[in-house]
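Cross-check.
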Amino acid sequence: MSRTTELASAKAALVDAGRAVRDSMDAVLRAMEALAAADEARSGPAPLRAFATTEEVAALTGRSEYTVRRMARDGQIAGAVKDGKSWLFNTRAVAAQFGVEPSDVLRAPRGSEVA
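Predicted model, tokenized:
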């Protein structure tokens, strides 16, 4: 067998092996996605985060950020806490006060701390 034939044969074997690895990795990724989807379906939506930002409360309540900050400053929003220059809002208190259903924006990433 000539050197060229040996190299061509080795190259073909490597290409086949590469395809097999790629196909195996694709199968593993599909299985992982299926497991993640099943886990989410079983456990339901992520829990609410403990606090929301001014921007999130404004979007949730349909008010401007300025109005939300003014209401917080004037004590008109239950669970509002000043954090340096920013405001943080108790998610459950805001939802109850404004009679709104918290949106996915206020859901905590899986595994994060909530109060």
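The first helix runs from residue 3 to 43. Confidence is low (pLDDT under 50) at residues 110-115. Passed to J.P. for a second look.
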